[in-house]
Predict the structure.
Amino acid sequence: MSQSQLDAFRGGDRLVRIIGHRGARGIMPENTMVGFEWTLRMGVGALEFDVLLTKDDIPVIVHNHQLTSSTTRDQDGQWLRDQEPTICDLTYAEICGFDVGGIDSRSAYGQRFPDQAFLSHIRVPRLVDLLELVARPCFAKTALMLEIKSDPKAEQPGVARINTVKRVVDAVRNTGLSHRTILHSFDWDILAECQRQAPDMPASFLTQMPENEDDAGEDSALGFGAELRKARSIPELVAKAGGELWCPYVKDINAQDIARAKELGLLVVTWTVNEIDDINQAIELGVDGIVSDYPGRVQHALLSRDYHWLPTLQDKEPHARRFPESATV
């Protein structure tokens, strides 16, 4: 049932998949339609992105639970200062009143991405907007790594998980893209609900060891890592939970765990891999895929080794391997 989705993330002989993180956050505004399309047209075959529900239960593509001051401007074009509104407290119509096309270079978050393009009049997309984009014939081979975010402040967490997963799964199924979608989360309780509601879509288990520092300007996922310290083997924990893909933080990967994951039949896709040394290490360790804010860097690292990121590139003449056709990703 899940073979086709997994194949889009499976590495092989001189093949390492590239997954654009929030599109290509290092270059384009994150989690935006302009960023997603730009990433696909550069020949990247998969996208990783984050989904939350609005007050009126519309799945939208946003990472943090709030509209952050470092990436959000009001209707007057001013950066948010005093208050960062919470996504679940706003209707989608209200969210559309904000501009998320730029990054404040003075903020700690903005200083992490000095090369990101600055655009205006860019709105938070709905999940369905991205689904409709990748449903176009020119993007027929695009795969989706859809991260579902849980609400840490939900009064009834179990009810909230059920509703969130239902809204997301319904949107994916209604656009006929379940065969190209993997459901992905740090919250393993959400993944259990995904497996219950959508057994036809593989579960991807995100992990980050709790000793790692949080990245500036981002909601923390470290609270989900407390139990990982007790595990003899994280890949075994993922396999026991019914996972088919393990997605560890790049600073946590090692040869032993990757070998054990492969013995268990898990695919290994590591996040978020931006620095050249980390990209090279991930390739050398034999991961199936690399999630990056700078997919172009990963492309160049692979090409320098005569590696590829799309299987169709291996079937072409050697000179063509370096120039994938963006219209057929």
